[in-house]
Amino acid sequence: MANSNPKIRYTQLFINNEFVNSVSGKKFPTVNPATEKPIIEISEADKADVELAVSAAKKAFARGSEWRKMEPSQRGRLMIKLADLMKRDIEHLANLESLDNGKAYEDSVFDINCAIDTFHYYAGWADKIHGNTIPSDCGFFTMTRKEPVGVVGQIIPWNYPILMLAWKWGPALAAGCTIVLKPAEQTPLTALEMAALAKEAGFPAGVINVVPGYGPTAGAAIAQHNDINKVAFTGSTEVGHKIMEYAAKTNLKRVGLELGGKSPLVVFDDCDLDEAVEIAHNAIFANHGQNCCAGSRTYVQAGIYDAFVKKAADMAKARKVGNPFVAGTQQGPQVDKDMFEKVLRMIESGKKEGATCSAGGARFGTQGYFVQPTVFSNVSDNMTIAREEIFGPVQTILKFNTLDEVIDRANNTKYGLAAGCITKNIDQALTFAQAVEAGSVWINCYDAVVPQAPFGGFKQSGTGRELGEDSLKEYIEVKTISIKVQSKN
């Protein structure tokens, strides 16, 4: 049941299975984006706290530790237990998520169920990470052993707080790593609640550590730490560059990056128009547009362009914006003042550069970081709203004529996270899917992300993959072992 005033039980750092104050004693506020008012103050981690968390994680990973000696199947059972506790507390977690992030309560429930599915998926992998035997010359018996990389640092964003946590924890725990996680400073509440559930589930001390704080301090300390063997980051491309730089200048730790996007969704004129409008609407407006793989460039073939724009504008105008705890709300506020102001600046740039504002285009209401669902038509590729990631509820609709033309235009970006097309022509769909430079391609659907399939980007949308078997590889070292044998059989 939705409750806009949930009890907040945890506000401290979680290190070595205990909630503790930061070394400095500093705190920072987390703000309700629907009211612009502080919710509560959270202990602020910096370099000294990251040191303590890494020390705990390193001890938990040491040879002979409880975690290292634990049977792989038991790791899987702990993950199942964690998922069961999430299901038990789903209403409380969803209320915290909506309070801290601003997303509609029903969307928070959906996200948490997806996170539960992710833990179930990786729990099944815990005892199935197999090596190989390899036929080799010169009288050797050769095999490979797959081992966890060790202590991993994980830095997650604010747009899907619990879901991004699950994407990071799932493969790392299945592989047998230990974790130091920094949640986004805008949304620390559910990560701390998840830390408490991990302890209740029975994870040994030091396996999971949660250190809320700011990117330039706590985040940088994680990326630069010489005892962290892999860092996983989801966030902006700009910060992704810094993470890589920090890794290169320290211990050459592995780096996994899931970064920004400016993803094209191409609507061909043979589509069902009403279905295409709805798919394109959800592709950009879901989660208030705060989605790295949002379909933020909607290309519509010339023959149906005007009809599509009218229907898209009407759908945006009908979208229910408001209190995330009220049933039926489709769109809550942007996460904070910075993002709110950025989205409004981008909207103004669209108007100034000559795009037609067909719906929305301004603040919604007078309190909270709410933005009207906005639709721009007559957009050209060189406009700021067509080139830069807006990360808000702003649909940009561009016109195209031919398949070859739209492929070239779709690929003319530094990003390559996702893409989609809507068409009844299978040849057209397959040609587009093979030619577009994107890590995920969705045909007659959008944002079809499941735990079993890898997710990640081309170009400056990142390196490595989340989800699926491919994500496990990010947390595993492959060791080759060769044994001399006296005779061959």
UniProtKB/TrEMBL annotation:
Give the record's family classification.
Belongs to the aldehyde dehydrogenase family.
Record: active site? 258
* Matches recorded under CDD domains: ALDH_F1AB_F2_RALDH1
Q: Which Pfam families match?
A: Aldedh
Domain Aldehyde dehydrogenase, residue spans: 20-481
Q: Which UniProt keywords apply?
A: Oxidoreductase
Q: Which PANTHER family match?
A: ALDEHYDE DEHYDROGENASE-RELATED
The reply to whether DNA repair figures as a keyword in the UniProt entry is: no
Q: Protein name, please?
A: Retinal dehydrogenase 1-like
Q: Does the keyword Oxidoreductase apply?
A: yes
